[in-house]
Design a protein that fits this description.
This protein is an alpha/beta fold. About 40% of the residues lie in helices and about 15% in strands. It has an 8-stranded parallel barrel with strand order 1-2-3-4-5-6-7-8, surrounded by 7 helices. The two termini are about 35 Å apart. The structure holds 5,10-methenyl-6,7,8-trihydrofolic acid, 3-methyl-2-oxobutanoic acid and magnesium ion. Keywords: Cytoplasm, Magnesium, Metal-binding, Methyltransferase, Pantothenate biosynthesis, Transferase.
Length: about 270
Amino acid sequence: MSVHNPDIKRVTTHTIQELKNKGEKISALTAYDYSMARVVDTAGVELILVGDSASNVMAGHETTLPITLDQMIYHASSVVRGVKRALVVVDLPFGSYQGNSSEALRSAIRIMKESGAHAVKMEGGQEIRESIVRILSAGVPVMGHLGLTPQSIYKFGTYAVRAKEEAEAQKLIDDAHMLEDIGCFGVVLEKIPATLTKTVSKSLTIPTIGIGAGPDADGQILVLHDMLGINNEFKPRFLRRYADLHTIITKAIAHYVDDVKANDFPNEKEAY
Ligand SMILES: Nc1nc(=O)c2c([nH]1)NC[C@@H]1CN(c3ccc(C(=O)N[C@@H](CCC(=O)O)C(=O)O)cc3)CN21
Ligand SMILES: CC(C)C(=O)C(=O)O
Ligand SMILES: [Mg+2]
């Protein structure tokens, strides 16, 4: 864990706000482990999300619902040890905050205490208002998450674009303002029309971070393994692939297998 390095200025929730104020876009990516978090942090991303997408990406589950609070804390504490500069935000997992505000506060406090992360993220608007207020009152920064909220997938039934209808768009706008009014430091907007993202981002003071939400969010986030092409099955249209690591890693491993079989590895220099 970085105790204090005077050469590196830490990103805080205030830094994220200043970026919006300056009109500079905010870059965010997910990370679930120490090694990848180090790479993402060193590359200059301002916000690292320990997403409950770890349920899909790390554990192979079909949805984000199965991941537990203990598992999120394991991922988050690993990420925190790899990060010197970025703001580390952790998803409160399904079932750790929906019951009531005491449960929500207890879960948020466990994440802060046991992982060393800097903030939590929660899916939903008006329905979870009291829980967010209680967590904020304890001094824990909270990020909202509206639009496609994967923890409610069985309520909606699909991962299709959200808030295309006027009523749902209006609820999202109201929720976004409510989140700002109670003191959230930012809000993720997932898979909603670009025009709605523009409206919300312009009318909010706090930054919006989009995923599949068009170019007008104040920042962008992607799942690291998707944008690196490690996970080569997931290809929604909002995803841009910046590398094809699945192919690169497969070739490297196949080469290693060949070398072992051919008695080429290890050679004399690689032996004692
Ligand atoms: N690997 C990974 N990447 C993510 O971006 C991600 C996760 N996992 N898990 C949690 C949520 C779920 N998210 C998702 C999940 C599915 C679609 C998707 O399948 N979209 C398809 C079809 C949607 C439909 O119309 O039914 C698409 O083509 O956009 C998009 C975002 C984003 N998050
Ligand atoms: C896609 C992002 C916003 C997320 O919530 C996650 O990775 O869990
Ligand atoms: Mg999530």
